[in-house]
Amino acid sequence: MNFCSECGDKVSLKIPEGDTHLRHVCDGCETIHYVNPKIITGSLPISGDRVLLCKRAIEPRYGLWTLPAGFMENEETVAEGAARETQEEAHAEVSDLQLYTVTSVPSVSQVHVFMKGDLVDDSYSAGEESLEVELFTEDEIPWDDIAFSAVKSTLKHYFEDRKTGVFPVHTTDIRHR
Ligand SMILES: [Zn+2]
């Protein structure tokens, strides 16, 4: 950030009095512009023993596979965002969405939230941001071509939990990418 969105004056990085972090502070109106982590919301769509993955048609990680997910929008819930991203990227509908994994990635100031849900029917196709959309069993998953650590970790938890049929919420911190 270079200029204040309130008054257009220049901003400087400083620690405001009583604060602990560097902030962009306006030289003119002294507004403190807080920047906080972004939430990525997505789904783990399940159909029998298979999960739905999308091959990315956009950077970053073009051509690698991911679960349908994206930046949460203002004025929506986590579940609404997950369902929206699933519709946009895979033209698929998920039901009974349940919180499943929460992954903090502090190096990029992101929190990835995945909700587990049932694919309503086997109707899906590639959306604008996908090259392909496919269902995979555990053995078929292209483990070396998964786009993001949070996605890989969510998939690993899922296939591990399937053995017991119990799906607790997993909280994971990824320190390195
Ligand atoms: Zn200002």
Automatic annotation (TrEMBL):
Keywords: Hydrolase
Membrane spanning residue stretches: none
Cofactor list: Mg(2+)
Pfam families: NUDIX (PF00293), Zn_ribbon_Nudix (PF14803)
SUPFAM superfamilies, per database record: Nudix (SSF55811)
Highest taxon, organism lineage: Bacteria
Positions of the Nudix hydrolase domain: 22-158
GO molecular function annotations of the record: hydrolase activity
PROSITE patterns linked to this entry: NUDIX, NUDIX_BOX
The protein's name: NUDIX hydrolase
Taxon lineage: Bacteria, Pseudomonadati, Pseudomonadota, Gammaproteobacteria, Thiotrichales
